[in-house]
Amino acid sequence: MIQQGTPLFRKTSFAFFAAGFNTFAILYCVQPLLPEFSKEFAISPTTASLSLSITTMVLAVSMLIFGSLSEVWGRKPIMIVSMLASSVFCILTAFSSNFHVLLVFRTIEGISLAGLPSIAMAYLGEEIESKSLGAAMGLYICGNSIGAVFGRVFSGMMSDYFGWQIAIGGIGLISLAATLIFWNTLPPSQHFKARPFVIRKLGLSLIDHLKAPRLICLFVIGFLLLGSNVALFNYIGYVLLEKPYSLSQTFISWTFLIMIIGMFSSVWTGKLIDRHGKQRLLFISLFLALIGVCLTWEANLLMKIVGLGFFTFGFFGAHAVASSWVGQLALQNKAQASSLYLFFYYTGSSVGGTLGGLFWSAYGWGGVISMNVGFLLVGFILWACVSKMVQNAKKVTKIANTCAPK
A Pfam family this protein belongs to (predicted)? Predict the structure, then answer.
């Protein structure tokens, strides 16, 4: 098993950093362009949000398929093909003649992107020793956050000066470079054991995961986390374009730099998991996210940015804890468990992004905040449920060990 501090650990971590960068730069590069789409294609903010929501929805469904196929075909080959195809389709998206064509390409991108995130956590769970898994997962999510930030800032700035087509095309070319880095750097799987492709067995194993209450709680927490995140960042651009702020697209794109906080949050949280436990860190992360959402209600621009910072720190911390907790609680078919978590996670993005548009149209920014507060409060309830179940399971195990004959 790969241990933290070794050259092989650093090599693997760098490969997944590049992979996360590729995936999330492509996925989120359209988010700052939503006002541009509304203006150019004469569509509502809710319709414009489909350029992100439809991609994440298809991504969520496709990950269930790729996660199962990786149990048969292996991890690395599927991840490489996924990254290469998504980069090519990102370039093709830049040539969309209308919004319908753009949605078609973004749908295909959702399918091609699914091959990496559905398998990445399973690869890390198989190849990295358990004591180093939290740090490795944190570094992978760090790459996700950097890619998401770069994709948003780069596309926002480029669109302001050269148009959205050049912005999206540039992201595709940069992602091709990240694909080559991943291809040449990631070590082949050493602990992967292929399984025969039996649809019935794969389906039954998925159902088994859905019967586990502890996993269900974590799946829904992931749904709520990304749903609130996408809703918040989808419509903050519309707020800042309007009076009294009247900010430029370039300035608004720079506000996405606040997501760099996620890089520190995910790594910091990953390192603290073994010391303080997942239960405590998940609660703290959810609490920080809730504070952040409430602070964005303030009309003062600085307070809005501070609120986004608090939310981002809590969001990435909670995601790092929840995703690693799924890998720990799923004793078998870890790739499928990870795929299910990410299915709920990205479904939350689609639902939260579009539902947030309805709240925005009906109630303005206050409506978006209210929706996010509701999401996070449900997250606290689920945190309490999974914490209680884990504690009860530990008590049962302790009693069983005590009563066992020696």
Answer: MFS_1
Q: Return the higher-pLDDT residue of 330 and 376.
A: 376
Taking residues 253-267, report their average pLDDT. 81
pLDDT at 49: 92
Place of tokens 């760099």: 260
For the chain, how many residues are written?
406
pTM: 0.79
Please say whether the beta carbons of 109 and 89 come within 8 A: yes
* Rounded CA separation 268/139 (Å): 10
Dihedral sign for Cα atoms in the order 400, 283, 143, 106? positive
159-184 in b/e burial notation, b at 16+ Cβ within 10 A? bbeeebeebbbbbbebbbebbebbbe
* Identity at 323, one-letter amino acid code: S
| Spatial separation of the C-alpha atoms in residues 171 and 164, rounded to whole Å | 11
CA-based torsion, 222, 224, 228, 231: positive or negative: positive
Cα 355 versus chain centre, distance: 18
DSSP string for 37-85: HHHHHT--HHHHTHHHHHHHHHHHHHHHHHHHHHHHH-SHHHHHHHHHH
Q: Which CATH number fits domain 7-189+197-395: 1.20.1250.20, 1.10.1240.10, 3.40.1440.10, 1.10.150.20?
A: 1.20.1250.20
Distance (Å) of CA 393 to CA 215, 274, 397, 398: 13, 19, 6, 9
Question: CB–CB of 316/262 below 8 Å?
Answer: yes
**pLDDT per residue over 75-112, tens digit each?**
888 889 999 999 999 999 999 989 999 999 999 999 99
Rounded CA separation 65/343 (Å): 10
Nearest to 104 by CA among 57, 150, 55, 144: 55
213-223 tens-digit pLDDT: 889 999 999 99
Q: Domains of the chain: which residue ranges?
A: 7-189+197-395
Question: 266 with 135: CB under 8 angstroms?
Answer: no
Q: Which residue has the higher pLDDT, 4 or 222?
A: 222
